[in-house]
Specification:
Layout lengths: L7 E7 L6 H16 L4 E8 L3 H8 L9 E8 L9 H11 L7 E5 L1 H5 L17 H15 L24
GO cellular component, one term: plasma membrane
Pfam families: ACR_tran
GO molecular function, one term: xenobiotic transmembrane transporter activity
Length: 170
C-alpha cells in the first residue's frame, strides 16, 4: 500500500515517570514553538495529562495516561499550498525535538492506522523470558543498537518504567 500524505501530524510525548506537570508543560511548549516554526502548520492542539476524554482513549490504547505524557495533533495547510510532504515535515520536527533524558517522542502514522495496517510499527522485535529486569536490559541493548540503523525512527520498548509505589500491610 503506498504511503499516504495525511494532512495531520500526531505525536505522543512521554517524559520520564515522575516528571511533574510544570516540566512536561515546559517541554511541550518548546515542541509547540518548533511546530509553528514550520510554515505548513495551520494549527495545533496539545493535551497534557489525563483528562476525562483520555480515559476512553486509554481504553482503546490511545491518549495520555498521566501528567508526564502529552498528545500533540497538528493540521497541515492544504496539499496544494505546501511543498513538503507530511513525512518531510515530521522529519524536520523530529530533528529539532528537545533532548530530554528518558523522554520518548513518537510520531503516529495516521495513514496506516486508518487503513488498519495492524501494528503501528513496520518492524517489531519480541523478546520473551521470565525475568523482567533481564528483558528490559536486553531490550535496551537492542534498541540502542537500532539507533544507528539508517531509516529506523521512533525505536521504543513496550516495557516501560512504572511509577514508584509503597505497599503498606495493616
Amino acid at each position: 500500500m503506498p504511503k499516504q500524505d495525511i494532512p495531520i501530524l500526531s505525536m505522543m510525548a512521554k517524559m520520564p515517570v515522575g516528571t511533574n506537570l510544570e516540566e512536561t508543560n515546559r517541554v511541550i511548549g518548546n515542541i509547540e514553538d518548533i511546530l509553528f516554526d514550520q510554515p505548513e502548520i495551520e494549527y495545533a492542539a496539545l493535551v497534557i495529562g489525563l483528562t476525562e476524554t483520555s480515559k476512553m482513549d486509554l481504553a482503546w490504547g490511545m491518549g495520555t495516561a498521566d501528567v508526564n505524557e502529552a498528545q500533540i495533533m497538528a493540521k497541515l495547510v492544504d496539499k496544494e499550498d505546501r511543498i513538503r510532504l507530511a513525512d518531510e515535515i515530521t522529519d524536520a520536527i523530529r530533528e529539532r525535538l528537545p533532548k530530554v533524558k528518558g523522554a520518548e517522542f513518537t510520531f503516529v502514522d495516521l495513514g496506516e492506522m486508518m487503513m488498519g495496517a495492524g501494528s503501528e510499527s513496520p518492524v517489531e522485535v519480541k523478546i520473551f523470558g521470565k525475568e523482567l529486569s533481564v528483558l528490559k536490559g536486553v531490550g535496551a541493548s537492542i534498541a540502542e543498537a537500532c539507533t544507528d540503523i539508517p531509516g529506523l525512527r521512533d525505536v521504543e520498548l513496550s516495557l516501560k518504567d512504572t511509577k514508584p509505589e509503597i505497599r503498606i500491610k495493616v
